[in-house]
Design a protein that fits this description.
single chain, 463 residues, alpha+beta, Thrombin, subunit H, Pdz3 Domain, 3 domains, six-stranded antiparallel barrel, 26 strands, globular
Length: 463
């Protein structure tokens, strides 16, 4: 059965003195007897090993034993007390010591160490987590300035371009693999919310996540993130997050922000079917059709209407909703962008403002106290900003969990970040104040209506 296997990348060490003679990068077919060593020498010092860990605290909670609640939530092991570890790679992108890696490498981790190719090791702070793109930014403590890899332009990459991937597959040590760009806008991969990847046949295996995919000018064009495999090993289908998305995350980190704020469209899109494409005169189903609009959103204000088919952003083609999301997400806030649409078969260009999603209603965070299945968790009101941040577009009402400490009652019964509380004991929960009232007194039983992953569940448990 085919599956996505996330690959953890590590960079490694130097070259043999016997390879020190002058060499050049292959430019033509006749140059293939030459070497990539000059590129590797320039890039290896910028690719690092990332070691992340956390100590799992034991959690004891009598609510965990409720079979109905455990069946729904898949409660955590109350006897956990081990040290969880993760291993991956990263790329130094700024001389100050900023390192980009995959979010899944440091997800849930609290302690991070980074090893450079010259064997120096540094503690690192996690300065930004962006699970929507599967990217994170670390900051090395001490040392510096550090060698940093130049960022290229992933939009300039073309199918057939030569690329190198650098990492530590299976922990065997530094490995450099060569291949070509197999696709430049691969979507439907299922790795992150912004499903838009560079596909390469350069061998990428478990142990490669967070490492560098470089072009023939020794510039970063992607962060290796996933492989498509039957066995977990490389079959020549690897995926890298385009560097133009990396730039947005790095800019946020340099600006001192702990989160990435991206332009909001206020539009819900669907893939264009072949039948609809034929009905509006397209020879193939390329584009994204507008299915729903927020009347106060930038798309509606730009004049976009339901049924419009989005075909391009600033002249760059859009093949599906994921492609549109990527194009908008890589735009800086402020100013505007041009969006090409087809309406009733006629092309037109709209100018859309690049503004962040509004915090309306305000978040009004609530950390639940007392004794209930929600104790210890923090909830906020749902707004367009929260919806974008947590990818919960399905739910427009209720309150959503944004923080659940590992040692809380809420965590022990299996509540997860992003869970939406819709009702408690049949009382509708519209704002955090409603949840505070519903959990103020201990109940003989709890009937919970929870939204998760686009589905709604109801469960009853004893108090």
């Amino acid at each position: 059965m085919l599956r996505i296997a996330l690959a953890f990348l590590i960079a490694a060490a130097g070259l043999s003195p016997s390879l020190a003679q002058t060499r050049t990068v292959p430019q033509t077919r006749s140059d293939t007897m030459l070497s990539y060593a000059p590129l590797v020498k320039r890039v290896v010092p910028t690719v690092v090993n990332v070691y992340a860990s956390r100590t799992e605290k034991p959690v004891r909670n009598p609510l965990f034993d409720d079979p109905l609640f455990r069946q729904f939530f898949g409660g955590a092991n109350p006897n956990s007390g081990n040290v969880a570890q993760s291993l991956g790679s990263g790329v130094v992108v700024d001389p100050s010591g900023l390192v980009v890696t995959n979010h899944h490498v440091i997800e849930g981790m609290t302690d991070v160490k980074v090893a450079l190719s010259d064997k120096r090791e540094f503690d690192a702070d996690i300065v930004l987590r962006d699970p929507r793109t599967d990217l994170a930014v670390l900051k090395l403590k001490g040392g510096g300035p550090f060698p940093a890899l130049e960022l290229g332009d992933s939009d300039a990459a073309e199918v057939g371009d030569l690329v190198l991937a650098i990492g530590n597959p299976f922990g065997v040590g530094q490995t450099v693999t060569q291949g070509i760009v197999s696709a430049v806008a691969r979507t439907q991969v299922g790795v992150s919310d912004y499903g838009f990847f560079i596909q390469t046949d350069a061998a990428i295996n478990p142990g490669n996540s967070g490492g560098a995919l470089i072009d023939m000018n020794a510039r970063l064009i992607g962060i290796n993130s996933a492989i498509y495999s039957r066995s977990g090993g490389s079959v020549g289908i690897g995926f890298a997050i385009p560097v133009n998305m990396v730039k947005v995350v790095v800019a946020a980190a340099k600006g001192g922000r702990a989160q990435v704020r991206r332009p909001w469209t206020g539009a819900t899109l669907q893939a264009l079917s072949r039948e609809i494409a034929e009905s509006i005169g397209l020879d193939r189903p390329a584009g994204a059709i507008v299915s729903e609009l927020n009347s106060k959103g930038p798309a509606a204000e730009a004049g976009m209407k339901r049924g419009d088919v989005i075909t391009a952003v600033e002249g760059l083609s859009v093949d599906d909703p994921e492609g549109f999301g990527y194009r908008i997400a890589t735009k800086p806030l402020g100013g505007s962008t041009s969006v090409s649409v087809l309406r009733d078969g006629k092309p037109m260009t709209l100018t859309m403002k690049l503004i962040p999603a509004p915090e309306n209603p305000p978040r009004e965070p609530l950390k639940v106290s007392g004794r209930s299945p929600f104790t210890g968790a923090t909830f906020v009101n749902i707004s367009p900003a929260v919806t974008e941040e947590l990818s919960i577009e399905t739910f427009r009402e209720g309150v959503v969990a944004v923080e659940i400490p590992e040692d809380s009652l809420a965590a022990s019964v299996g509540l997860q970040k992003g869970d939406v509380v819709l009702a408690v004991n049949d009382a509708k929960i519209a704002r955090t104040g409603d949840l505070e009232k519903a959990t103020a007194a201990r109940k003989s039983y709890w009937k919970l209506t929870i939204g998760r992953g686009g589905q709604i569940f109801t469960t009853v448990m004893g108090g």
